[in-house]
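Encode chain A's predicted structure.
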Amino acid sequence: MRKPEERSAPYWSALGCVLSVVAALLFQAAPTRLIEGITIMPTWPLMVIFLWSGLRPYFMPPIAIFAIGITQDLLTGAPMGIWALSYLVSISVFRFRGEDGMPRDLPPIVLRFGATLLLAQAIAFSAGYFALGEMPHLQPLIIETIASILMFPMLAFLAVRRRRGSRSGFIGG
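Encoded structure for chain A:
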């Protein structure tokens, strides 16, 4: 049974979840180029999945995570199922569990996301190797990992800044 604070109209939170997932997928599909040939784009979908699975876990069931990964594969042209597999496994390993869910302090959230990101990238690299039959390019994954590690603290700060005084956050409703 949900807590009393969570029973009050989760519709705005659900809308925020859907909109943030759609925005993350669109940002991921439209990468930014700073230098000719090098694409610099954080793993926005993983960030959104990680934050929502901590703030409102019932908004991110495994089927939703799978659908987000498959959609990312379709939009980015990756072999089908690579990001779906990597997101499902990494989130299931590092998801916040327990009565309280995600902590209200930023350092444990950032550390756990870093571990989630590294596991997701390792799985994507391994699955890409088996899917393509050849060694995938390592440079885009390294750049994506660094960009994600640099961008995630800002997004996490926005998500948990109000949780320090209350149970709701910026995207937690």
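Helices lie at 4-7, 11-29, 44-55, 62-76, 82-94, 106-132, 138-160.
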